[in-house]
Design a protein that fits this description.
Largest sheet: none
Radius of gyration: 30 Å
Distance between the termini: 37 Å
Structural class: mainly alpha
Oligomer: single chain
Number of strands: 0
Helix content: 10-25%
Shape: flat
Amino acid sequence: MKRIIITTLIAPLAIGLAACDVDQTKEAELPEVEVTGGQMPEYDVEPAEVEVGTEEKTIEVPTVDIKTPDAEGTPATGDE
């Protein structure tokens, strides 16, 4: 339900922005800044230990059987 509401609110906004014609009338200029002093923070870090091995594991994945309607729209019965 939230997706429908968000979509209905965003769609007109996107269309409105696409219909705009924007022309730059003045170039931007960065301010002049002088930076002096300061200090970078210091950290004492102890990284986690990671062990890498070659142990093999087998994972069993379930199979999925999807039954779709045929071209005429007749529901699938599962009998093939």
